[in-house]
Structure formats: C-alpha cells, structure tokens
Amino acid sequence: MISNLLPTHATIQDNKGTIKGRILDLDKNPLYPVAVFIHGTTIGDYTDEKGFYKLENCPVGDQTIVISGIGVKTTRQQVQVLTNKEVIVADIIVDDTVELNEVVINGKSEARRQQEQAYAITVLDIKKAYATTAPLNKLMNNISSVRIREDGGVGSNYNFSLNGFSGNQVKFFLDGIPMDNFGSSFNLSNISVNMAERVEVYKGVLPVGLGSDALGGAVNIISRKDANFLDASYSVGSFNTHRISLNGAYTDINSGFTVRANAFYNYSDNNYKVYAPVIDLKTNKKIDDRWVKRFHDDYEAGGLKMETGLTNKSYADYLLAGIIISKNDKDVQTGATMDAVYGGVKAKSESLIPSLRYKKEDLFVEGLSFSAYGAYSHVNTFNIDTVSRIYNWLGEWIPASGKGEKSYTDSKIRNREWMVNANVSYMINYHQSITLNHVYSNMNRKIHDKVDPGNESNKIPQQLTKNITGLGYQINYDRWSTHLFVKRYRTNSSTYKRLDEFTGTARLEKIEESKINMGYGGAFTYFVLPKLQTKVSYEQAYRLPESNEMFGDGLIQQRNPDLKPESSHNVNIGATFEQKIYKHTFFLEGNFIYRNTKDFILKAVSLTSNPTTGYENIGKVLTRGVEAGMKYHWNNIIHAGVNFTYQYITDNQEFEENNNSYVGEGITENITYKERLPNIPYLFGNGELGFRLPDIGMKNTELSLDYSLDYVKKYYLSFPGLGASGSKKMIPQQISHDLALGYTMDSGKYSVVLECTNFTNEKLYDNYRLQKPGRAFNVKFRYFFKY
Predict the structure, then answer these.
(1) Spatial separation of the C-alpha atoms in residues 680 and 267, rounded to whole Å
(2) Other C-beta atoms within 10 Å of 22: how many?
(3) How big, in percent rounded to 5, are the helix, strand and coil portions of the chain?
(4) Cα(394)–Cα(681) distance, rounded to whole angstroms?
(5) For the chain, what is the mean pLDDT?
(6) pLDDT digits over 469-502, tens only?
(7) SS3 of 127, please?
(8) Residue 9 neighbours by CB under 8 Å, 6+ apart
C-alpha cells in the first residue's frame, strides 16, 4: 500500500478518512495490479489479486480517485470523504480493452503481466502443461534462446544454455530462492511440472530482488499458490521409466496455518539402444560400430519439499519453516563420450536442507517491505569406482591390470553451505520504489576416500564464500518503466593447487584468494501502442566461479582452482506485439542480443582414452544474436507457435600472454581470434501445433492433440578454423518430432495423456558422442482436486 507514509498509529485523525473498494474489468474479473490514487496527492495503492484497494489518510471532502495501469484505460471517479469514516465505493468497472482499427485486445493473465516487465523476460505458463509427461527442463527447451543439452536419458547430466551462456552462468531460483545448494537430486530434470505455476526466464538483466551473480540470465520457478488442493500423477513408459508426483496444500483461512508439500519419485533402466564402437577386449582393437543396448545406466531419485507455518498474520504475510529431502542413485555408463564404457561405476547424492522464510509488507510504515530466507545445506556426493574390469559395449569384460575402471575411488564429498538472502524494498509513492538486497553463502567441502585415505589433497579443506549486495531504483508510469541498479560482488576462496607438476619438486600448496567487483545496469520499457511494447536493457555483470567448477566432481569433471570471475557487458533490445481479431490472437516477439565477455568460463572435453571434462577461462568472447517467435490461438481450439535463435559467438582475444609456460613466455597471436566458439549450438528453433476439442464423448471433457518439432543445426566440437575438414569432430544436425494425445474429464479432475517422443527414431546428440534415447512411449494418469 502507498500513502503519505505516516506511522500506523496516526492513520485516523481529524479531517481524514478512508476509501475502500474494488476494481473490475468489463467481464467482472478483478484487475491486478493497477494503481488507484487520489488526484493531486501522493495517496495511492495498488489493487491486490482480488482487485481490492484501500486508501487511508484521505482529505475530507469531494475527491477524485484515478485508476491507471499498463494496458488499462485511465478512469476517474468522484468520491466524498467523511471525517474519521470509512467510505466503501461500489465496484468500479474499468475498460481494459483497447480498440485499434476495430481490433479489440483483452486483459492479461498473470504470466502476461510478468512478461510486460522492463526486463528481457519470457514467461512459460506451466498450468497449460500439467498433463504432459515431460519434466520442467524439457518444457523450457521450447523457449527461444534456450537449449537443454542432455548427456542421455532420465537422470543424465544436463546443461542449460541461454543466449550462449550455460552451466553456472545461468542461475536457477525457486520462488526467488537460489537453488545452488539444493544438490543434484532436486533439480529441473527431476521436478514435476505439476509443482509449478509458471517459469520466468530472464535473458539478461535480473531484478535486484533475485540477488545473484548470474552472467547470462536466470530461471525463476514460481510454485503453485493454490490454498487448498491435491494433484497426484503417475507415468510409465519405455525403458522401464516411472515417474510419480504428489503436490498439495492446505490452509486454514481463520488461523492462517498452512502446510504445502511437493514430492516426486523417478526411476528408469535407461536401456535404450545407441550406435557405439565395439572393442575386441583381447586385442583392444575396434571391431565395428553397431546398435547396442545400454546395460549400466539405471537411475533412481526421490525427493520431498515441505513447508509449514502461518500466513496472513499482523506480524507476517508468511512465516514458514521448510525442509528439502532428496536422494538419487545413478549408474555411470560412459565417460565424457561413448568411447569410454563402464560397467561398475556409480554416483550417488543425498541432500537435507532445513530452511526458514519470512515476509511482511507494510512493515512498521506503509510501503516498507521485508523478506528473508535462510537455509543450511547438507549435501553428500558419493563416487564409486572400485571394480577392476575393462568393459565393452556388449557388456563383456576382462580383468584390468590396474584398479578401478577410470580413477579407482570410493569417495564421499561432503558439502556444507549456509545461505541467507535478505531483501528490503520501500515504495516512495505509487510511481517510485527502491530495493536493497544481500545474499551471503558459505560453502565448505571435505573429501574422504575409503580406498585412498592417505591422499594429501583430500586432507586440505576447501571453502568458497560469496557476498553479493544489490541496490535498485524503479520508476513506473502508465506507458513506461525504468529499473536502475548497482551490485557489489565479493568472493573468498580457499583450496589447493598442484605446483611443478611432472617434476621432481611436484607438491600441493594451499591457496587463498579474495576478490571484489562492481556491476551496474538498467532496464527500460515503453509502450508505443497499448499492445506494442519495446524494451532495452544493459548490464555490466560479474559471475563468480562455483565450487564444482573450481573443485571438480571427483570423477569425470576435473578441478581448476585458477578460474577467474568472468565479466560481461550485456545488451538486450526487443519488442513484443499482440493482436486480437475476433477469435484470432497473434503474439510476436523479437530480440537482439549483444554480449562482450571477458574471462569467459567454457566447459571443454578432453578426448583421451578416458575422456574427461573441465572448465577454463577464455580471454575475450563476443556474442551477437537474434531471436524471434510467433504464437497463434484461435477460439481456444487451435494453438501454434514457432521460434528460432541465431547466435554468433566468437573468440575476441587477439593476443595471448604466456606466463610460466613450458613453451616460453611473452605475447603471441591467438590463432583462434575471430573464430566461432566450439561446442556451442548457434542455430536452433522449435515449432508446435495443437488442438483442443471440448465435450467429446461427454460434457466437461476435452480431447487434445499436440505436435512439436525441435531443430538444431550441426556444430563443431573444436574451433571450426583449425585442422583439416575431414578430421573435425562434429555434433550432427538434429530434427526430432514429438506427439501427444490427451483426454481430460470432469473439468480437469481426471486426465490421461499418451506421448511419443522422437517418433521418427532419429539419432539425437546434444553433446559429442553422447547419444540420447530413440523413439519412446509414455502414458501419464493425473488426478486433481481443489477444495
């Protein structure tokens, strides 16, 4: 609420009164959020989700209240304010449709309102996908500029790429809470779509309230806000794949007591066929390439997220204690490529994360809001490689001369992390607000290896501490909005480094570093027409290396303690346009992307006999790209959409400086200058077409048929300009097709959907020589009850 910000004990006094009421659209639906204020004063409020507003400390006498907002026709109404009285105004009907050449454009959903922020953002409305069998990460693959690169089937490692940035360059949040410390078992590939209401994908500048060191954007998953509901689903499919999801909430309106829970269980044999090289174990020579079944790729994961506490109290909008419990058990079939095949390597993870959340609007004075989140993360990761065998893709094996299949280990990596996120915002008036946010995290890692207890490197504790402070200012008017911010990043790390490797004086040395960086930026939006919106944003961003990048995973990903923070000048310029003609609705969007990055952190693949991965800094990287999309709806029966992304990402480091190098020291020309960066998709797109037919067979039912297409142009594993054309390694072009047939009954209470993914059975690769599943069938049953 916005007013003259007097203390609450002074809100009723002589010559003052209160105005209350509700704002509705032409269809009698609540309008939210729109501004309601008294003309000629700073007394105002925004409507809540039910359309209600309240104006306090109003001058006595005849007053004019003004209703305004983006996409809403400004409306005025006369009200007589009485001394020390509360005046209840009859519902005010506001025209939220705008006629443009006889074309009528209607009001907006919450997802649409979020998309109209000044930031470069795409909002995915998950409510429309509750019947699908796909996890959250695959749904987001249909957003322009987004690529989800998976190593294999269910539970495989995946990499989220956005505008050429990937991995930890893109941050993930759940209701604004960073997911960095949730562990590998509670991630986007395991979370059911039925847990979320919408997903906000920020493609550049982030709101200060999210508080993060994201370099290339962020994903904020907004969980369902239904007060009382139960949503249960079960799916079964090819490769003995099973997914169970249970989501629910209960809130007592009188006491404010609430409990919310989300649980999942996933299992798959992942025994799909791949086209792989078969080795003769006796001669260690390749026999041929052939279709074989994966034989050591089982995956099992389960998790529970629960919160309970009080809501809508005088001292708290919510005060919730929560816990996350999750665990996974994963067989490791391959190394960084399918040239390495394992039969006994395993990886496990378990997480226990207690948390506390608090929020209060109008704290002490009106317009002052405070929220805080705190958690202590217990995450244990186990890497097991104790079987002394050599396998081939036929499942055959011979005894190995050495120990283990890759790196003889039975290790436990113990990560413990404190995380606190605090946010204070103050609404100066109904046009302006300021926000202060601070995020603190402290991660400690210890390693113990049962088969190598005397390993000196495991005896050195490793620690990473981050402090990120952001200050933002926002100003909004009817047709334009501006957000400005500054950020301060500080990191402290403690780890070890191997010195004088491969010499007689090789040794381990503990190293400690502390770094401080400053960032700044802003976002601006302007409505040229009520449904034509333009956006511009700029940011000088920093991203601090994560613990897994610096310390490795103890198995396939190698450590690099020398990683430096990466920085980038990011620019987004875009526009959106929506048009409705009778029952036809068109939505168009387009964006230009510019990134000038220094010390870019790139994931590389080492193609040895036992392939590994690792992260390294590249001096300078320049990204230029465009994305565009179009959506079409007709009468809630037909929907279609298409989008594409082109990104030209090049090495922009002209000269390199060699220090402490085996090949000498000095400045040399960079032979990959202006070359396209390797192992990153640069041209890709998606298409979809769907039909919804109501009342088929019986009333309150719906029959749905959906088709989707995914395309990725081929790209090189190494720099395209290096080496002979016949020797270059390549990730081939991909075109995949999916189909889904669904049927809902009793207005959505019961539903069943049958899906066929990759129905043309193409060989699909997101990463070099790591094949994804072929044709697969899944059926999902869902029950939903709201009380």
Answers:
(1) 30
(2) 18
(3) 5, 60, 35
(4) 32
(5) 87
(6) 999 999 988 789 999 999 999 988 888 777 766 6
(7) helix
(8) none
Residue 589 bridge partners (DSSP)? 576, 629
pLDDT tens, residue by residue, 700-757:
999 999 999 999 999 998 888 887 777 888 999 999 999 999 999 998 899 999 999 9
Q: How many residues are given for the chain?
A: 787
Distance CA 199, CA 216 (A): 17
- The tokens for 254 are 């009188």
- For the record, the structure tokens of 160 come out as 């989220």
The torsion region of residue 613 among left (phi > 0), alpha (psi -120 to 50) and beta comes to beta
CB 462, CB 472: distance < 8 Å: no
Distances in Å between the Cα of 267 and the Cα atoms of 187, 335, 384 are 15, 21, 20
| 171 Cβ contact partners less than 8 Å away, ≥ 6 residues apart | 178, 180, 206, 210, 212, 213, 214, 217, 218, 219
- For residues 519 and 487, give the distance between their C-alpha atoms in angstroms, rounded to a whole number: 5
What Cα–Cα distance (Å) separates residue 263 from each residue in 139, 450, 588?
A: 19, 33, 37
- Phi, then psi, of 480 in degrees rounded to 5: -145, 160
437 close to 469: Cβ distance less than 8 angstroms? yes
The separation between CA 580 and the C-alpha centre of its own chain, rounded to angstroms, equals 30
**Tens of pLDDT, residues 628-677:** 999 999 988 999 999 999 999 999 999 887 665 555 567 889 999 999 98
Query: Is residue 33 reached through a cis peptide bond, with omega within 30 degrees of 0 on the bond before it?
Result: yes
SS (H, E, C) 136-159: HHHHHHHCCCEEEEECCCCCCCEE
Could you give the CA distance from residue 159 to residue 152 in angstroms, rounded to a whole number?
11
106 confidence band (pLDDT: 50, 70, 90): very low
Beta bridge partners of 45: 36
Q: Which of these, 242, 235, 254, 165, lies nearest to 206 by C-alpha position? A: 165
Sign of the CA dihedral 548, 553, 558, 562? positive
* DSSP 8-state secondary structure symbol assigned to residue 718: S
